[in-house]
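Bench notes, afternoon.
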Amino acid sequence: ARIAGLPNGGVAILDKSAAKVTCIDADGWITARFGAPGEKPGELDDPLDIAVSATGEVYVLDAGKAAVLKY
């Protein structure tokens, strides 16, 4: 798994094997989940890493799609 800090004090966790991202707030509550294995829009083919912007956008580097996906 890869982890990136969110501006609200929470974290975004990339589960590479499940091809999913889970966002958790500072209190431990799940605030968002997205992604699924696959090649369709919104799905992750071969996710490698995760980053978060200062405004909270989540970016996933997907080697399978040769792209950086924004959520």
